[in-house]
Write a structure and sequence with these properties.
- The structure is a homodimer of 281-residue chains.
- Chain A has 281 residues and is an alpha+beta fold.
- Helix content of chain A is 18%, strand content 44%.
- The first copy, chain A, is built from 6 helices and 20 strands.
- In chain A, α1 runs antiparallel to α2.
- At the A-B interface, α2 and β9 of A face α3 and β13 of B.
- Chain A binds a DNA duplex (10 and 10 nucleotides) through loops.
Chain lengths: 281, 281
DNA sequence: CCGAATGTCA
DNA sequence: TGACATTCGG
């Protein structure tokens, strides 16, 4: 028996809005410690990792570990049928190949339940090593989203460079080039408006803006975002989910070919894992 | 001479928005008692009945009964030229084959008039018998609209079942099934937020969601909607128009074929009228 | 959190 | 051209 009750149902709605652009099908892995999900985008360049800890739910029961495959678009459709202030409960019997989404209005005068078939999804679960990052930047998530959106109207890729002074986003396209620098500022009224930089060494990496813009769909989940970078490692873009966990996006950097001097396509993620993360371990 | 003056012109705008998706051409029947309209949708499955009583107008003059055929889309186009706070006056000479729409701004500093040709429309006016309904549910119109919209992302048809406990909307589609139950609740702050059920006998009928969603275009006309059902009778979905009348939508239920066990297409409305309403009389 | 307006897709 | 979805503003 699986039974998860989440009073703040809007959280789950936001989580699905955050990942549905990137992921088509994914396994929701449920255990006594919570719910997690790990999935690559269709081109295997970006990876999403979601964690919702058991203690973030008002009620959490998971008798046995289960990996429940779902079509993300269908889950998203169902969750759109929930109001933002609905209480959401997920239920699945141990031997069932369906899951039930239950939406209760705050006054309990409307109760909706949706039953959805589960799918078998081949699990290409990657062990993500805990890496040491040369630079970790925390900044307002809205600002980051705005920057990625703005830059993508100029170019396709962004060079993110971190120095002690700040984080710089640069792009270049047909109509010209752009640089946006955010300085470290901790002397701000609210902590969520501050930009902080923890840096061991300056880093500069290049990414496809298309993916960055997909990541920013998670903006409603958190007022801040954390960007962790090391040379040749995938960047980690993390949105904390209050009291529950996080959603992390990993994106392989575009590698500059030394001989040719131009930028190669992204390495596929699994390639990067074996080739790059191997020496990071 | 026909002359109708309506200070709250937005009402007329909303009425046309409510019916234009369903009806292409219709006769506006004017008599000393008011304006009424009855029209079927193109597939003859749904019927719209509108009543605007004479005393809801600030000025009402109708010297002789007239049935004025109009293309609903064209009327809608004209009315979009009126601001929401405009005063609307309709005028037609007795021997004229045109009607004039006049829009006055509240301060009388702008006056627009539009003349439109009337059409001859063959009148298949149906006498709608007053029926006794097994169940009458009043609920917030927004909630009803939301439910119909949500369910139509899952399936094509809805089963509406009324019991003493509440009204249940169910559907089923490729990705799964859904049930939404609204309990009777009269203990709510505002009467327009309450859901009330008058039931003589439990009823359960199946309808095409496509039409239900068209009906909910009338939501701006009233904060509540009334759903009246009896076995094998068309459902009546009614939106009251404050101080003036109503707009009612009738929809034939889909009939389950006992022999075959599957759901037939909707009966055409005229068929239903003769076959089903005949014994209701 | 809801309603309106805009932009996109069919 | 109309309907739907998404986005912005109150």
């Amino acid at each position: 028996m699986l039974e998860l009750r989440l009073v703040q149902g809007s959280l789950l709605k936001k989580v699905l809005e955050a990942i549905k652009e990137l992921v088509t099908d994914a396994n929701f892995d449920c255990s006594s410690s919570g719910v997690s999900l790990q999935a690559m985008d269709s081109s295997h360049v970006a990876l999403v990792a979601l964690l919702l800890r058991y203690d973030g739910f008002e009620h959490f029961r998971c008798d046995r570990n289960r990996s429940m495959g779902m079509n993300i678009n269908n889950v998203s459709k169902l969750l759109r049928c929930a109001a933002n202030d609905d209480i959401i409960t997920l239920k699945a019997d141990d031997d069932s190949d369906t899951i039930t989404f239950m939406f209760e209005s705050p006054k309990q005068d409307k109760i909706a339940d949706f039953e959805m078939k589960l799918m078998d999804i081949q699990n290409d679960h990657l062990g993500i090593p805990e890496a040491e990052y040369q630079a970790i930047v925390k900044m307002p998530s809205l600002e980051f989203a705005r920057i990625c959106k703005d830059l993508s109207s100029i170019g396709d890729t962004v060079v993110i460079s971190v120095t002690k002074e700040g984080i710089k986003f640069s792009t270049r396209g047909d109509i010209g080039s752009a640089n946006i620098v955010c300085r470290q500022n901790t002397t701000v009224d609210k902590p969520e408006d501050s930009t902080t930089i923890e840096m061991k060494e300056p880093v500069s990496l290049t990414f496809a803006l298309r993916y960055m813009n997909s990541f920013t769909k998670a903006t409603p989940l958190s007022s801040t975002v954390t960007i962790s970078m090391s040379s040749d490692l995938p960047v980690v873009v993390e949105y904390k989910i209050a009291e529950m966990g996080y959603i992390r996006f990993y994106l392989a950097p575009k590698i500059e070919d030394d001989d040719e001097g131009y930028i190669l396509e992204e390495k596929s993620f699994s390639f990067l894992l074996t080739q790059v993360w191997s020496f990071a371990r």
